[in-house]
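Internal ticket #5521
Category: modeling
Description: The requester needs a full-assembly model to guide mutagenesis choices. All entity lines are attached below as received. Residue total reported by intake: 1438.
Assigned to: D.W.
Attached entities:
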Amino acid sequence: MATFEAIITSLEQLSIQPKTLSHDAVADNKAWIAALSTLPTEQPYHVTKTLILKPKTAKSAAATPVVVIALDATETNATALGKKLGLKDCRFANEDLLKDTFATTKDAVSPFALSNVADLSLIHLVVDTQLLALPATEVLAFHPGASDKTVFVTVDQLKAYLASLKKEFVDVDFKALAAAKPPAGGAPKAAPKAKKEAKKEVAAADDGHQMGIEYKKDVDFPKWYQQVLTKSEMLDYYDVSGCYILRPLAYNVWKEITNFFDGAITEMGVEDTYFPMFVSNRVLEREKDHIEGFAPEVAWVTKAGSSDLEEPIAIRPTSETVMYPYFAKWIRSHRDLPFRINQWCSVVRWEFKNPQPFLRTREFLWQEGHTAHLTLKDATSEVYEILDLYEKVYTDLLALPVVKGVKSEKERFAGGYFTTTVEGFIPTTGRAIQGGTSHCLGQNFSKMFDIVVEDPASDSNDPKKIHVWQNSWGLSTRTIGVMVMVHGDDKGLVLPPRVALTQAVVIPCGLTVKTSKADADKLYDACADLAKRLKKCGVKVKSDLRENYTPGFKFNHWEIRGTPLRIELGPKDIQQNQVTCVRRDTGARFTIPVEQLESGVQEALETIQHDMFVRAKAKRDESIIRVEQWEDFVPALNDKKLILMPWCDRMECEDDIKERSARTSNEGEEEDERAPSMGAKSLCNPFEQPTDKPIVPGVTKCVACGQDAKHYMLFGRSY
Amino acid sequence: MATFEAIITSLEQLSIQPKTLSHDAVADNKAWIAALSTLPTEQPYHVTKTLILKPKTAKSAAATPVVVIALDATETNATALGKKLGLKDCRFANEDLLKDTFATTKDAVSPFALSNVADLSLIHLVVDTQLLALPATEVLAFHPGASDKTVFVTVDQLKAYLASLKKEFVDVDFKALAAAKPPAGGAPKAAPKAKKEAKKEVAAADDGHQMGIEYKKDVDFPKWYQQVLTKSEMLDYYDVSGCYILRPLAYNVWKEITNFFDGAITEMGVEDTYFPMFVSNRVLEREKDHIEGFAPEVAWVTKAGSSDLEEPIAIRPTSETVMYPYFAKWIRSHRDLPFRINQWCSVVRWEFKNPQPFLRTREFLWQEGHTAHLTLKDATSEVYEILDLYEKVYTDLLALPVVKGVKSEKERFAGGYFTTTVEGFIPTTGRAIQGGTSHCLGQNFSKMFDIVVEDPASDSNDPKKIHVWQNSWGLSTRTIGVMVMVHGDDKGLVLPPRVALTQAVVIPCGLTVKTSKADADKLYDACADLAKRLKKCGVKVKSDLRENYTPGFKFNHWEIRGTPLRIELGPKDIQQNQVTCVRRDTGARFTIPVEQLESGVQEALETIQHDMFVRAKAKRDESIIRVEQWEDFVPALNDKKLILMPWCDRMECEDDIKERSARTSNEGEEEDERAPSMGAKSLCNPFEQPTDKPIVPGVTKCVACGQDAKHYMLFGRSY
C-alpha cells in the first residue's frame, strides 16, 4: 500500500515541499471539510476531489479507469463525462480496483496515487477546467494515501507533478458539460433558436446557483461573511496572510467616507499632509511607554535589494513618533496654534491573531488627525467636534447607529488623557465594535517631545513656557466590515445608497423566444435611455443589457452586489409608461411613472437610506438591556445583548466583570466561535445617560460590586 | 594637544558613537562648508560654530573666557552677548589662550575642547537657543581638535556631553539679542510705545531677512531648490534618507491633481481599488525580466516585532506582479473587458543615487492604472486618452508645457509594447524630465500571467482563446518638483492658482503708531470682510491680521509661500473704495473696485494661471533647437537646450549619441553639478512633427549617423 510518506517523498523528489496537516480520519469530503475547518491554516485553500471511475468493459478487456481531478465545488456528472469521452456507463471504481491498480483506499484517493499505476496508458486522466484556471499560486488540498492526512500543494505544483508522469490529460469544463443537458421540465423540442435560448437559460440558472451565498447569516456567520465579501466582489484574499484586496465596490465606500470627512475637517481648518511610512528605530524607541503596545506588531525592513540596511527601519503602526518631533520644530509660538494636520494613509500592524477582512487586517487604510492647542478647553472642544463627524460617517453614510461616549481608564489610549469613542453593534453575534476614536492626549506627548510655546498671558520680560495640549483621532476601513455585517442578508451584500458604487441598475425584462429583434432592441434602447436620464441627475446607475443572461440571473447578480434599487422595464411597463422598482433592502416592489423617473428614483434611494438606518437603530436599541442586578448580566450577554448599568468606574471592578462574564470555551472552537463566551469589556460611558432612573450619588450602587455608582456604563462582548 | 582621537574616545566613553569624516584642512567655516558639501553624507546636518571670546580682564585677574556653541547660521554679536552677560569688550580669544586653556587651535575649536579645561568654573558657557530648540535627533557637525576632520553628533548627544561636564550653561536667543539693538538710522529716542513698535519692526525686518532665500536660482540651483522647499513650508527633511515630509502646501498640489485626474478616469469607466503593499517573494520573482530593473531597489520586510518572518516580504515598487494574477482570476470572458482599475498609493524604490525632493525619493505617492482590453486598437486608444489627461495635469493645473510623444525602444517600459510620455523641461538646468508615462504592454504580461478570454469571433463549438491586451499608466509626486523648479524665483515659491492652498491673502496696511485702536480694528474688520466675501465665491483666501508683524514681514511671508495674489487694504484704499492687488508671478500692482471684488479677483487668478503657462511655454519653446548637423548638437546641449532633429530610430545610434555628448566631469562635482556634462538621452518621438521640413524617406538623413532618418526625435540631458 502506497503510504502517505511514500507520496511525500516522491513529491520532494520533484522539489515540491508540500505543507501537511493531520486530523481525524474522514470517510467523505463533507467530513473532511469539517475536519479541516477546525484547524489553523495559513491561507485559503481549495478543497478538491479525486474520483476514480470505471466504464463498462468487456470481461476479456483490461479496465480503463477514468481518474478525475476536480475542485470539490465543481459538479461532476459521471454520465455526461463518459459521453464526452465516448465511454459507457461510468461508475465509481470498486475497492478491488482501487487497491489493485492505484494501491489506495476509498477514503484516501488523490492524484498522487497515479504514481502507483503500472501502466498509465490504460488510464483516462481528466482534470477540471475550473481547477486549471486558478492562478498558479492558489493552494489545493488533497488526501494522499491516508484519510487522516491532508497535503497542500499549489496549482503549479500539481501541474508539475502531472507533467512528471508524462501522461496527457483532458481538460474538461464540467459546467459546460452540465449545461448541455436539456433543462428539467424545460422547453419542448424546438427550433435551433429555441434550443440556444434554452441552453442560455440553463447556463444562466446554473450560474445563478453557483453564485449564491451558500451559508445562512444566522447559521454560520463567519462563512456567510467571507462569501458575501468575495461573491459580491468587494474583496479578495491574498497570499500574504492578513492582507486583502479591496475591490472597487469596497473601495468606493472608503472613497465616500473620505470625501465626506475630508471636506468637513478642511472646513474646520485642518490641513492634509503626508509623512513617510518609514520610522527609524531610534525615533520609534524614544517613546517606550506609548510604543509598548505596538512593538510586537511592528514590521521591520532590514534589506534593500540584496544588501542589509545599516539599521532596520520600521513601517508605521501609527504616526505619533513620526510627527511629534516635527511639531516641536514647527510650533514656535502660541500664534502657531491651533496646529492641525491630518493624513490619509495605510498603517501596518503585524498581528498574530486570526485576521478577518476589514475587522482585523495587517495593513489597513485610515486617516489620522494630530492637532495641538493652547488650552485644554480648545483641545477638548475639537475632540467632541471630531467625534460628532465620526458619528455622522456611521449614521448618515453607512446607515448605522453608534453610541458616543468616553472610554474607561483601562480602555483609553495608552499615554493619552481621555478617549472618546463611537461604539457600533453587530446584532448577529451580539458583539460591540469600536468604530472610531477621538483622543485628548493632554500634555503627555508635548512633554515627551518638548513641544512648547510661550504663554501669551505671561510677561514678555519673563516669559513662561507651556506645553501644548494635543489630540489625535482616527477612523479606518474597519467601518466597511461593520456595514457588511449589519446590513447584509442571506442573498448577499446590502449597500446603503450613499456609499454604493452602483445605486440603481436598469434591467430589461419580459423578452421571450417570440420577441422580435426589433422589439428587443427597442427595449434595450429604452433601458439605456432611462439610465442616461438617471445619470444626468446624479444617480450612479448602470444598465445591464447583456444579451446572454436571463433577468433572473441578472437579478441575482446585482442583488449579491448589494445594489440598492433594481429598475425593471418590460413590455407591460412600456405600455403603462412606468418602470417597476424593487428595493434590495426589503424586496418591496413599486412602480414609478416614467415622467417622474428622476424624482421617484432619488426619493426611493433616500427612503432606502433612511429606512436602513431606522431598522438598524431599532434592532440596536432593543439590544441594549438595562441591568439592575448582577444575575441578569451574563444571561443578557449570552442573549446577544449589550448592557447599560450603573457602575463605579473602578478598574478592578472592570477586570472582575470581565472574568465573571467569561465562560469556559468549547474545545476546538475557532476564535470567532469562541467569542460568544469571552468576557465583557466596558464599551463607553455614554454621553447620553438614562433620565428615567438617574444615578443618585451615594445612593445608587454599582451593579457589579455594590460600591457607589458614578454613572451608567455600557458593557458588552466586543470585537 | 588634545587630539581628535582623544576626543572621540571621550565621547565613546559617554556611549556616543559619532560619525566622522575626513577632508581637506580648512581654516574657516566657509571653507569647511565647501569641503563638506563635496562629500557624501547620509542625512542633512547643521553646520555649527564654536567661538571662544575673552572679555576685558584686569591684568591680575584670571581670564574668564566665554565659550559660545551656536549654529553657523545664527548671527552672534559678541558685543551684545557681552552686554547680556555683564562682561566688557568681548573679543575673540588669541592663540595662546586657545592653546593654554583649551588645548586647541583656531581652526579646530569645538565644544569638546571643554574636556581639556582645568577649571570649568572660570568659563562662561553659552549655547544658542536655535540649536537647543532643534529636535533631539537632528545632526550637528563639529570640528573637534582637528581642522581636517568633522564629527557628527545629534542634538541629544551634544546635550549629553554637556551634561557630563556638570557645567551649567546659559541658553541665549541671539535673534532677540540682535533685535534689542535700535534699528540702523531708526526712530529717534521715543516714548515706550514707539520703542515697542520699533522693536517689533526690527524683529520683523530681522525675521524677514532670516526668512529669505539665501541662494539665487541661477547661481546655486540645488541649494536654491532646497531652501525654497523648506522655507516655503512645502517640505521638510527626515531622518530616513531619501524620505521627505510633504507639508500641507505640497500635499494640496497633489490633492488637486488627484481630484482632477480621478474625476476624469472615473468618467471614463475606470474604477479605484486598493491592493496590499506587500508582495510575496514567490510572486515578485515570477517575472524575472520585468522585475530585473526593480530588484536591486526592492525593500524587504524580514521581521515583525522580535521574530523573523518565515519568508521575507517585499514592499511594492510597482504593482504589476501584485495585480495580474488576479486579472487572470477575475477576467473570465470577453464580456469582462475592458477591465480597468486604478489605485492611489505610495511605492518604495530603495535607490542608492543621491535623493532629491520630489524628483528622486525612496517613497513617493502616485497613481497606477492597469487595464485589459480585447483588442490592440482598444488598448491603444486608451493609452492616448490617458496621455492627454497627463498633459492636462501639466498644462491646466501646473501651468507647464510638455511634449507628448513615444519613447524609443531603449527607453520604453521593460516588457512593454510601446510607451508614450509627457516630457517636461527645467530651463535653469536645461534638462528634460519625464513627467508621466502611459504604456501599452501588449500581450506580454497576459501571456506571462495567462490572462485569456474566449475570442467572441470564434466558433462556440471550437472556441479560440486570446490573450488580452494590457495598458499601465502612472503619474507621481514628481510633478510637484517640476512645478517648483520652473515657476519658483529668487523670492521663493510661485504657485499656479489652480493648485495653491491659499490663492489670495488679504493684508492690512498703512497702520502707524498714530493709528487709533478703533481705526485699526475697523481696518482689520474690513479685511476680514473681504476675505469672507472671497471665500463665499470659492476663492481659497486667508487674511493675515496678526498684530505683531509689519506689512513688509507679511508680504515676505506670503511671497515665499508662493501665494498667487496679495490683496492690500489700507486707509487710502478704503477712502477710494478699492483694494490694491499685487501678483506674485510678475509683481505687477493694480486696483480692483471693492464692489467688483469677487469677479476682479477671480479674473486675476485666471489671468495669472494663464500667464504663467504662456511664459513657461515661451521659455520652453525657445529652448528647443532644431539641429541639422552634428557639430551643433553638443553646443546646443551645453547652452541648456533640447534638440529636435531627424533620427534613424536605431538603438546603436542612440547609445552613440549619449557617449559623444558626455563631457568629462569636473572632479569633486556632486551629481547634480555633474549633470550638465552627462550624455543626452532620447526623450521622445513627438506626436507633433515639424511641418516646415518634413522627413523625406530615403532622402533625409539622421543627423547623428547619416543613415536614413525615420522621423524627428527630441533629445536632451535629462533627470
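Resolution: model delivered.
Comment from assignee: Chain A has four domains: 4-179, 258-277+316-487, 497-618, 624-716.
Ticket closed.
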